[in-house]
Amino acid sequence: MALKPEKLNKRKSRVVGRLAAESRNFSRGNLNVSGRFLAENGWEYPFAITDISPGGILAQSDYIPKLGEQLVMITAELGRIQGKVIRCENNGFACIIQSTSRKRDQLADRLTWLLNYKRLGLKDDRIAERTAKNQEVYVTLDDGTRFIAASLDMSITGMLIQTKETVRLAEKISVGKLSGTVSRITETGFAIQFDIPIATRPAA
After folding, report:
1. Which of 75, 73, 69 lies closest to 41 in space, CA to CA?
2. How do residues 123-159 score in pLDDT, each as one tens digit?
3. What is the pLDDT of residue 123?
4. Please, what is the Cα angle at 157 between 110 and 139, to 5 degrees?
5. Domain ends where: 116, 151, 169?
6. Across residues 60-86, what is the average pLDDT?
7. What is the Cα–Cα distance from 146 to 142, expressed in whole angstroms?
8. Which residues constitute the domain of residue 158?
9. d(CA 172, CA 191)
10. How many domains does the chain have?
11. Are residue 92 and residue 150 in the same domain, yes or no?
């Protein structure tokens, strides 16, 4: 099932703004968040976040990725996060979050809300089991053709697209900043398998 973080509504935005004005400090260990991450070997592994800020994540996992490895992490509460492993431990790892300033600010707001809405007596009222259904996405084909389509489902490894546009099986394709390959043609569109992130290697 696709996982997509919600947009803060006006009520939440006011609360987040007030909390941020008081202090943008995150209570360590108070956020119970778990999900899956895609390693460079192409396999998905479960993990649990034990410490998080807009700039980094400390996580526990039975599988320990390599130092410098690029990971794609996804949780129901925070959505899709990309990071680079900067420390490995016996029972987990630490990552720096790789994102734009805008996305980092959105993550900070989301963390502020998650860590404080209960003590304020508010409901999280997120959409049940958030999905990417009917969300508009910008698709670019290998020949440069661009069009708007609907994302029906998204996971770490791929996305199901609804469109009337014609694509070829195994065609290289981009959805926003994500790249991949058409893995399946459906009656209403196609499925894309995302490229596995490759660690940046120093020049020889």
Report:
1. 69
2. 554 433 334 456 788 999 989 999 999 988 777 678 8
3. 56
4. 80
5. 116
6. 92
7. 9
8. 135-194
9. 12
10. 2
11. no
**DSSP character at residue 42:** S
Distance, CA of 56 to CA of 173 (rounded, Å): 30
Same domain, 91 and 149: no
Question: 83 and 166: one domain?
Answer: no
In this structure, are 22 and 75 located in the same domain?
yes
pTM above 0.85, yes or no: no
Distances (CA, A) of 35 to 58, 133, 136, 167, 170: 13, 20, 24, 32, 29
Do residues 30 and 110 both lie within one domain? yes
Highest mean predicted confidence (pLDDT) among 46-60, 102-116, 183-197: 46-60
35 with 79, same domain: the answer is yes
Given the structure tokens 């958030």, which residue do they identify?
130
Which residue shows structure tokens 């490895």? 69
The answer to whether 120 and 128 are in contact (CB under 8 A) is no
Task: Please state the separation of Cα 172 from the chain's center in Å.
Answer: 21
What's the mean pLDDT when you consider all of the chain? 77
150-186: per-residue pLDDT in tens?
A: 988 777 678 899 999 999 999 999 988 788 899 999 9
95 and 161 inside one domain: no
Residue 197 has pLDDT above 80, yes or no: no
